[in-house]
Design a protein that fits this description.
elongated; about 120 residues; about 80% helix; mainly alpha; single chain
Length: about 120
């Protein structure tokens, strides 16, 4: 298996696109840093790095908690915004779970046997 599974590539593209959407909606320095860090990690995830996948999943789960809490806080004033934030949180959890737990992704990572040492 020399190419990343299409579902893994799609998750990476959609994930970065959602981060860009949130950055355009509310441009902050932390948003720009998040885009940079997530893009960097997802590049290595798509290359087959299991360590990058675990690190990305942990950061993504923190983001899911943040989006979930923000969605619950927004619920009384704006149901539409709350639904968007809670949907974003569910996507984060699903994407992290797929990247770390899917048999296809793990098979790809094992076949690549890739590490950061291979980058240099």
């Amino acid at each position: 298996m020399t190419q990343a599974p299409k579902s893994l590539s799609a998750i990476a593209i959609v994930f970065v696109a959602t981060e860009i959407f949130w950055f355009v909606a509310n441009a902050t320095v932390s948003g720009a840093l998040r885009i940079g860090i997530y893009s960097f990690l997802l590049y290595f995830v798509v290359q087959g790095s299991r360590g990058a996948a675990y690190l990305w999943a942990v950061l993504t789960l923190f983001g899911a908690v943040n989006a979930g809490v923000s969605g619950l806080d927004a619920l009384p004033s704006s149901q539409g915004n709350a639904a968007l934030l809670l949907g974003h949180a569910l996507f984060f959890v699903g994407a992290a779970g797929y990247v770390v737990l899917s048999p296809r992704g793990r098979k790809y990572q094992s076949a690549r046997n890739w590490s950061l040492q291979d980058a240099g």
